[in-house]
Amino acid sequence: AGCEKEPSSYMWIYILLGNMLRGIGETPITPLGISYLDDFAKEENVPVYVACLHTIAMMGPMFGFLLGSLCAKLYVDIGFVDPGSISITPQDSRWVGAWWLGFLIGGAASFLAAIPFCFLPKSLKKPGEANKDKTSRYSPVILLCIFQCRLICPFLSDFYTSLKKVLGNRMYFTLLCCSLLQFSGFIGFLTYKPKYMEQQYGQSTSKSNFLIGMTSLPPVGLGMFLGGLIMKKYKMGIIGATKFSFTMSFVSYAISLLHLFVGCDNYVVAGMTVSYE
Question: Looking at the UniProt record for this protein, which Gene Ontology cellular component terms does it annotate, in alphabetical order (predicted)?
Answer without folding.
Answer: basolateral plasma membrane
